[in-house]
Design goal:
This protein is mostly beta strands and 249 residues long. It contains two helices and 14 strands, in the order H-E-E-E-E-E-E-E-E-E-E-E-H-E-E-E. The chain has a twelve-stranded antiparallel barrel. The protein has a two-stranded antiparallel sheet with strand order 2-3. It comes from Sphingobium rhizovicinum.
């Protein structure tokens, strides 16, 4: 690894650790601010690896600003992601508004994804998306139906729609939660090379199951993720088993 790259990546690691330390001091106040620091064996979203299969560190902060409204931010190391132009990290910033209506929990969200360290010789890499989620209880299980849409943007070669269904259930008498999901990515293509960031084989399905353990401020999990992307286009899209451990500050 080139010394400059090593220094840059070390700086990102230090920034995340310092952010986690700062969040700890903030989270001790009587407000409802929450922060989490995690380590995972891979960063995989919608069945696609964003970290080229490498381990990552992740820091998340959520700050309530009004009834039902919170500002959210997540920083995740990517260590030179090929999928995102050599980016060293992804910063997800946005807001979430949630309301409980009878037996339904309805949420609306907006996110912008920034990619520090990406090669801007090939243009802009950031993109935004909006989403809506409806959650409800079905017996002992919680069920979420969601749709997230990224309007047409040059950085993703068109637009992108992701619809998903997920469910989770706590295993009685244990600190374990079992969950699963299925999702579909689709959209219009204006630039095939850029569109391949989010849909490397065109429209596709992804699915996964996870087993998570929660004890106090600690959590850990094991997750399986896969897609139906054809083998010739399956770089960083095949089946993967991901391990994570986290601490809520």
């Amino acid at each position: 690894m080139h010394p400059t790259d090593r220094l840059r990546r070390t700086a990102w690691l230090g920034a995340l650790l310092l952010a986690g330390h700062a969040h700890a001091a903030t989270a001790q106040s009587p407000s409802a601010i929450t922060a989490t620091v995690e380590a995972a064996s891979e960063e995989r979203r919608r069945g696609l690896s964003w970290s080229d299969g490498d381990p990552v560190l992740r820091g998340t902060l959520s700050v309530p600003v009004a009834d039902g409204l919170s500002l959210d931010g997540t920083a995740t190391t990517l260590w030179g992601s090929q999928r995102h132009g050599g980016a060293d990290a992804v910063l997800d910033v946005g807001a979430t508004y949630a309301r409980q209506l009878g037996g339904f929990r309805l949420s609306a969200e907006g996110r912008y994804h920034l990619f520090p360290g990406a090669d801007h010789a090939f243009g802009h890499w950031g993109y935004g998306e909006v989403g809506a989620i409806a959650g409800f209880l079905l017996g002992p299980a919680s069920v979420d139906l969601a749709a997230r849409y990224a309007p047409r943007q040059s950085s993703i070669g068109g637009d992108n729609l992701y619809v998903s269904a997920s469910s989770a259930i706590a295993i009685p008498g244990t600190p374990l939660t079992l969950s699963g999901h299925v999702g579909r990515s689709s959209g219009d293509v204006r630039d095939p090379l850029r569109a391949a960031r989010l849909r490397p084989d065109g429209n596709y399905w992804d699915h996964g199951v996870a087993l998570d353990w929660y004890r106090g401020r600690w959590s850990a999990g094991l997750r399986y993720a896969d897609t139906d992307i054809d083998a010739p286009n399956s770089a960083h899209a095949g089946a993967s088993l991901i391990v994570r451990i986290g601490f809520t500050l």
